[in-house]
Amino acid sequence: MSKSFKVPKFGEGATSWGPQALDPVLAGMDIPYAPFSKTDKIGKVADFLGEGPRERDRRSKKSEHQGYGASVSLFTIDQTEDDSNFNVVDSRRRAAAKGKAKLVRSRLGGPTNTRGAGRDSGRFPRGKPRRFGWKDYERPQRLRDASVTVQEDWKLIEEIDFSRLSVLTLDVGRGTDVETCGVVYPYDRSYDRVNVKLDKKLKALDRALYNPTTSDDPIVQKMAQSGDFSVFVADSILSMIMCAPKSVYPWDIIIVKENGKLFFDKREGGPIDLVSVNENAVEPPIEAEAGSKDIINTPAALALEALFINQNFANQVVLEGEENAHHMANPNPFHDPEDNSLPLASRGYRYRSFNIASSIETDPFPILVRTEVDADITNSTTGEPQFLSIKALNEFDTKAPGAGGALDWRQKLDSIPGAIMATEMKNNALKLSRWSIQALLAGIDTFKLGFVSRTNPKDNTDHTILGVKTYKPADFLSQMNTSVSNGWGIFRSIIDMCNKLPDGKYVLLKDPNQPILRIYEIPANAFETEYSDDEDSNAE
């Protein structure tokens, strides 16, 4: 005759979950129980190891110092068990590794017998195994020099990590023209038909091209006197600040605060004027070692080469001549025919106003930005002229260090241009982001991008145009995960920091080896001595 099981009645717990600790029913059945709170973590619901009373007493005393509910030794996993004697041996993996080492040694000309090889071969010193490839965490760090040397009398004002910049955002409109200057020529559409088989040689054309710093601009000086603006900046400087989180190489921007007005300047010949190459590659170009012959593929040499290519490419792909010229409302403010007899390059300057007031600010906050356009083109749909930005990417040597896994343009540009462009976006994210933002600041919706390669990979003075593609800067930014709103947020935060400082001279530095920006207060005559010395030597 089977007996039915009846669940005993337990008293309700007033201060804990479950029955009371001294419940008479549990005491009569000799069932161990300890109260626990709702927030306690239970390691075991039941213990089937059958620990004896001595072990339970030892573990209970060990955990008496812990909080409420944590002394339930019967239901908690003991993390102090010694697992040092527990090992897993995979004989198949070890055998494969030994065979692989034997194969590698035989290919290198070393002894095929691995017994005692490290002692006798001379190729593999004992205790120092040969590396056949760096892992990411083992790769030696490349230490770069700063763009300027921090002096002892410079005062650190602010240090900004890139992680703080990535969360900033500010929605700003397209901007409006305040004044336009210069002259531009129409783009030569025949270059759209250039390809690898119908390439064209890049010509070196001498043209008068001007890109002065902000405070030396006569239009900016006139606008500063009007009192309509309190912040003045050029598009090349502004784009670097807006794209700062993508920068790897060091750079610097001079900030002058005078009578409450901010002027963002660059150093003549500084990194803002140069065009970096493969800066964002996993393995960017490296400095040449002492005695190395590969001096044309260093970061500095490639930047100068890229600058040369961009200036000549923009001059070559336009139809010059007075009959084709598009004159702006005002002439070029920097050109004096008596000082420079060279013909003017195709370049227009649009001084544009942007309201960077936030949504919670009722008063407008206008700033003046000098933007640049390189050419114009007639819209095939509307028949109206529209401005263009003309830039060029350059291929140096796909087998050289720092090539960034680039494909051979002469073999792949016509067949898979998308793959080449994807590689360039990865290796030159900062450069392409800056170009796109500069185009949008100037009110340009499309730009021409040339693909220029060395005629001989070992010669950096002779180049060939392999193709010209048309892109939209807004599409570029979205594909590279670059936000214009984030860029405006970064620039506005820099302005807010500077507005809290007294009138003076400051410098914004990108750390050469870390993702950090620093603002220093510097003497009023900083960076001026070297220029005066150069002028004196030239005069002599």
Question: How does this structure look, described?
Answer:
The protein is built from 14 helices and 15 strands. By secondary structure, the protein is α+β, with helices and mostly antiparallel strands. It has two domains: 1-80, no CATH class; 155-539, no CATH class. The strands form two sheets. Strands 1-15-14-5-6-4-9-8-2-7 form a ten-stranded mixed β-sheet, with helices on both faces. A hairpin with a 6-residue loop joins β10 and β11. The longest helix has 18 residues, at 299-316. The chain is globular, with a radius of gyration of 34 Å. Mean pLDDT is 81; it is low at 59-80, 94-138 and 530-540.
Q: Provide the structure class.
A: alpha+beta
The largest sheet is: 10 strands, mixed
Distance N to C terminus:
123 Å
How many H/I helices? 14
What's the total number of strands?
15
Number of domains: 2
Q: Compute the gyration radius: what is it?
A: 34 Å
Subunit structure: Component of the eukaryotic translation initiation factor 3 (eIF-3) complex.
Region (RNA gate): 271-285
Family: Belongs to the eIF-3 subunit D family.
Keywords: Cytoplasm, Initiation factor, Protein biosynthesis, RNA-binding
